[in-house]
Amino acid sequence: MKSEGLNPDSRLLMIALAGCILLASLGISIVTVALPTLTRAFSAEVQQVQWVVLAYLLAVTVTIVSAGRMGDLYGNRRVLVAGLLLLTLASAACMWAPSLNWLIAGRVAQGLGAAILMSLPMSIAKGLVAKERVGSAMGLLGTTSAIGTAMGPSFGGVLIGSLGWQSAFAALTILGAGMLVLALKAIPKPGASGSAGSAINGGMDWAGNFWLAVALLCFALSATGGKVGMDIPILMLLALSAIALAAFVHTELMAAKPLVPVALLGERAISTALITNLLVGAIMMATLVVGPFFLSFGLGLSDAGTGLVMAVGPIAAALSGVPAGRMTDRFGADRTLLAGLTLATAGLCCFAILPSLFSIPGYVIALILITPGFQLFLAANNTAVMLKAADEHKGMVSGLLGLSRNLGFMAGASLFPLLFASMLDSGGLTGNSAEAIGKAFSFTFFSAAGLSGLAILLAVVAMGTRSSRAKA
After folding, report:
1. What are the backbone angles phi and psi of residue 425, rounded to the nearest 5°?
2. What value does the mean pLDDT take over residues 450-458?
3. What 3-state DSSP class applies to 116?
């Protein structure tokens, strides 16, 4: 691929890779608006129906690293096509689901396919895109992820309102089939170009897969409150997660071909990138889960008004993702990453201050600042990590990036609302004044700004270490 421009085949490749991430992201959010309809269709409680969303997220989180490693071992093209086929068939099964349990099982299968679609596009892009254009590729993939997540509720709402809940899964089936055809045409076969389809000799570390899956599943369930048909104490889930994680580390140290080489995680550049990715993922969720409460109860907006203000974020993400990637290519990953974190930190401080002073305009200004900051960070961080990844590990490393982001999402979705609620009086949202809700909102986002500052500190230390080693 030429660095000065993309030829038609390369453009088709990037469209295929971006479409895979778009499809997987759409699968997360398109059914959220269907939950009320599903409670009526299956005569179910809200706690039961929420598993239509949670099953997908849990399946992705538990298997995304393994999915990336499968690409390394058996060929990225082959595994990506299998993921598209699985998601498409699972979507069709969901569409014809005769019961809620059947639908949840179908969502688990969808999530397994989505884990592949989320982990392998970055790996394929790293193998086929010229080094000086990797940042642009990562920016494009990050943009499509944001667009897919953002457009899901509105796209799903139109379909479900007109044609019923089954239409959301019919749309995913049709889109999946289309993407399958495009991927077969656009992604080179093994040996045709680079390493997009090349496989590495070796076998899957099934013992490592098992212990990592148990550790992640227990952690993810603790983040959702431990409700899986019966209440499991959160501390018990966390203890089981810690035990499984220890068993995973022991297994990896003993394995000849480990799922995740422990030495790789010991590299400061990789470990710092994963930790900062987790922190930023948690902070991103603060804007998504705490913001609507403040807009509704603090500023008194209607549901439509809240949705309109929240739409500024996805629009800003769609507009800033590709430029963020180009800045990474031009100015380097380190400088772009620091610029993104600094802009995000400034935006978080604005969230804590401006809405209380200027109401909706202040909130919008903060969103416009913070969203490009996130996009700059994601493009630069993903680029830096993928460029450092060895060919035999690039799928697994891509999976680790996805895993750290998902864990951050889950942690942020549970911890930031808890922090926000803890700052309110016992009367809850309806029993507190707009001023009290505003103060709780400010405290929450000053705390998020503190986490962002920690991410900057970690990044600076890692960069300083690399600089010292380079001089030595």
Report:
1. -70, 175
2. 95
3. helix
